[in-house]
Amino acid sequence: MVRFLHTADWQIGMTRRFLAPEAQARFSSSRVDVIRRLGDVAVRQGCDFVLVCGDVFEHAQLTPQTVRRALEALRAVEVPVYLLPGNHDHLGPLSLWATALLAEELPVHVHVLDTPGPHQVAPGVEVVAVPWHGKHPGVDLVGEVLAQLPEGPAPAGTVRVVAAHGAVDVLDQDRRSASAIAVAPLVQALEAGRIHYVALGDRHSRTRVDPAIWYSGAPEPTAWREQDPGDVLVVDVEPAGVGRADVSVTPHTVATWRFVALDRRTDGDEDLDALDAELTALPDKDRTILRLGLRGTLGLAQHARLEEMLARHADLLGALHRPAQHSDLVLAGGDDIADLGLGGFLAAAVEEIRTASDGLEADAGEDEVASFVPGRPDDAASARDALALLYRLAAGGAR
């Protein structure tokens, strides 16, 4: 039997536009720190090696500091590590893998699977590597490598693991990608004992395609659409001679960040109280990236309270993202601001903004969003925000 740790899609060097510089720095650091955590899992679980199935790095134009910090983390992993180039860090022109930095500073127990086909990684263990040599291969690379393996079962006592990267055809509903990995030939090879496990990368959600074909998912999440990210897989393989091997796959969570999506209706103070309490209860706020969608009808004072409340929570969260397509807040009336007794220029400004808000709300299409610049599709929400800000400032001055 062989036991190894299957992981992929570390995406070292990844940036996210919705993160402030301070949060981006911590997000980037976590993508290196997770290497040490998964290395600890490999040691505790008695794994023989770590297999990384593509997209170790986000792209080839990384700073030497970013690369060196990743190599330092790899140096701390106490078992051999095998890195497969994927589509983000492929072996094409100007590849990161061909740099002098990697050639000189790659730890001796870390190996790049840069040649297609079988690699003996331990006595009786072969990793059949399928590296990417360009961004758009246009063919099923796994199918090409699989066709070159000898017919019949693997040699007695040999565990054969395919390491690949890319989308499988059964999850490519439109069958649009010429490079999609055909699953049927892999299943046939598993049934025949030619191969024993298929370790995949590219899909950031942990996904079982077959009892012996898995995506490990990304060890740190990268987007809200992902399901079951943040894991690595400890895989046990016991060949059966002829036929399928006995395969056991156990996920281990290593992530420290979370992408959370909330869609809530807010129609008054009670809803605002509930939302405030829900956001207060979120754990690990500094590593939580929250996408918040709000729908409902609020008065001006309530809208001002909402903005003040969200600003307070945003200071604690890794990020608070409010995409307009997930929000549909309506401003009810405007009597709240009249209670402040504004006159002169301020009263005229309120009336102008309110008119803009009402008119733009009526004209806005279903997918349009908000910023107070005439002629832009996001004017309506910015007009609402301007009224709310004016209310907050005026209310503060009236006390």
Distinctive features:
alpha/beta, 33% helix, Purple Acid Phosphatase, chain A, domain 2, elongated, 23% strand, 399 residues
Could you please describe the fold and organization of this structure?
With 399 residues, the chain is of the alpha/beta class. The protein folds into two domains: 2-253, Purple Acid Phosphatase, chain A, domain 2 (4-Layer Sandwich); 258-398, no CATH class. Helix content is 33%, strand content 23%. The chain contains ten helices and 16 strands. The chain has helices spanning 21-44, 64-75, 100-105, 141-147, 183-192, 269-280, 300-314, 335-338, 344-363, 379-398; strands at 2-7, 50-53, 81-84, 110-112, 117-122, 125-129, 159-165, 197-201, 207-210, 213-215, 231-238, 246-253, 258-265, 288-299, 319-321, 328-332. A six-stranded mixed beta sheet has the order 4-3-2-1-11-12, covered by helices on one side. Strands 5-6-7-8-10-9 form a six-stranded mixed beta sheet. Strands 13, 14, 15 and 16 form a four-stranded parallel beta sheet that branches. Helix 4 links the parallel strand 6 (125-129) and strand 7 (159-165). Helix 6 runs parallel beside helix 7 (300-314), helix 7 crosses helix 10 (379-398) and helix 9 (344-363) runs antiparallel to helix 10. The chain starts with a strand and ends with a helix. 34% of the residues are buried. Mean pLDDT is 87; it is low at 360-377.
